[in-house]
Amino acid sequence: MTVLEAPAAPERPKAQDEGQLEKATERRNRRTYLALLLPGLLGLLVSFVFPLAYMVRMSFNQGSPDGVIVETFTLDTYIQPLTDPYYWKVTLDTFQMGVVVGILCVIVSYPVALFLARSTSKYRGLLIAIAIAPLLTSAVVRTYGWMVILGTNGLINSSLDGLGLIDTPLELTNNMTGVTIGLVEIFMPYAILAMISGFGRLSPQLEEAAGSLGASKFKVFTKVTLPLCLPGLLTAFLLVFVLSISTFITPRLLGGGSVQVLATEIYDQTTGLLNWPFAAALSVILLVLFGLIIAVYQRLTKKIGG
Amino acid sequence: MTESKLSIVDLTKRYAAGLEPAVDRLNMEVEEGHLVALLGPSGCGKTTTLRMVAGLMDPTAGSIVVDGREITHTPVNKRGMGMVFQSYALFPHMNVEQNVAFGLEMRQVSKAEQKARVAAALDMVQLGHLGKRQTKELSGGQQQRIALARALVVEPTLLLLDEPLSNLDAKLRETMRTEIRSIQQRTRATTLFVTHDQDEALDMADRIAVMNGGLIEQFGSPTEVYERPRTHFVANFIGQANFLTGRVGAETGRANLAGESYYKVDVEGLGQFGAIGSSGLAGSTHELVIRPHRLNVSLHPGAADAPLAGTIERVSYTGDALAVAVRVGGQQLQAQMLTSSGDLPRIGDAAYLSWNPEDAYLLPSPAKLERLAS
Fold first, then answer.
1. Which backbone phi and psi does A15 adopt, to 5 degrees?
2. Structure confidence at residue B319 (pLDDT)
3. How many domains does chain A have?
4. Which residue of chain A is at minimal alpha-carbon distance from B92?
5. Domain extent for B300
6. Is B264 helix (H, G, I), strand (E, B) or coil?
7. Which of A106, A217, B51, B138 would staple B142 via disulfide (CB 3.0–4.6 Å)?
8. Is residue B1 part of a domain?
9. B82 vs chain A: nearest CA distance in angstroms?
10. 3-class DSSP state for residue B205?
């Protein structure tokens, strides 16, 4: 038996050089990314960050009834809405409207979105297009449409009256009910789109697997379908909430002046009373409201693993 | 006769009126504890059959009987079967333990028992330490085992596997093949296994149902479907095969107790050869099936009697194996040689083929003329 000499270990590449090379590549990559991001960043800076900063600065100025803006630094513009019960009510109404519209919109859009997401029909694309077609008409036109339908002599009231079901017309316009109905319908396409893109983890095989393991149709829905849809539902809710509390046209037209939310209030302060600092302060409050709900949203999505 | 675990009677699935049925009056009996492979090319109806047994699809006609009880129209959640999907279908919003416990939870098994049974099932697939993991953190092989544990933990009446290995890479596929088979044998779970991979079917199954065009072409043990294929399709689909068509002459003797006989077969243009087949084939035209590794190839004439002379047209050397294609008359025959036999043969070399009569099997059904033409 012969003793073989152990072969010499192959020379290892110098780790230091390798590491440096890697770092250099990484640096170069990062520079490329930055260069690619720059146009977008500049655009955002000009169209978003500057105006926002300007608005925040404006909110600390002093307004006056004659429309003159006094350059100063005061918290009066904030103290007034935060102490005046009227503005508390407007803020709470706004928040409540956003939540109610968001929830209702998610509820009525969910079946449509679930159907479209699951569809394997060759008409699926067409059906999705039809579902979002209302976006082709402006919210103003659709709001007027709802005024015609919901008005005192509108479609619903005259139908119910004709059937002898009511004596006095239902009050469906010029109040929060009308605004809510209008907003839910107007935001449905957005909710449907957000849901379809958020249902990515749902697959028919998961539902079949649950069924084969003994889950009834109801259990399949509550244990598998719904939990997997949650990220999509949350995104849709957030989107509709944000759109609702920032929308102006529908609350103004369907609310007929009797519904005051932050958006209509800001509009009145800007164009009616020319109190720009006060309007700016209300806008900042609205932004904080956005921020709060987004923080909650992120907490929730992390929890459900979306 | 012992009662079958699963009986499929005249099962038919037609997706739309006027279309060819996807599954056409299929009949099968599966014994308790057996692993049966439904093997066939894509579109042969194997997955459709499995889905009908699972209750995920309604048959157009026919019936499915499990343990003597007709379940043709029982909803999927009342069938008590365990299914492993091609994509594993693990619930992404649950961790490994919750996934495995799902079936037990649906059966309202107590929490304590759930815990014990989940732990046992995870141990069985050797993943007891991964219970708290999220499913997306697992590798394909691990997900596969979790899916298997989830299906087996409910002690299913039938275990249904839908191409469970097709998403794994080649190495892992072979490991999982052995593992699934050993788990199946330990649990004695009667299993239906859909696959398009003949190696998988031959390796794992007790019985193979070779399917084609919605029909079962042959239902038998791996050796039966390989050694005694009933049709051209089966011979061609399982393993490699050379086909020669010839006129069967007189019986030359009884071959075995199974009633098979030896024959002389006249193959046009090539000569007369010995072959084996079921009795009563004399006088008609049949196809002869010879597996490549049963063909003796010699580079020198005279070794075997009545050698068939030809020319080597292709040589494929893969280290372990040396395959050659030999042109004889109007046909090309595939054959295998030993790799240690010195110099490799070259294209254009003369080669002499012979075979033992018991390695040339006559297909029982007469050769079809249209296949001869093609």
1. -60, -35
2. 78
3. 1
4. A201
5. 296-354
6. strand
7. B138
8. no
9. 6
10. coil
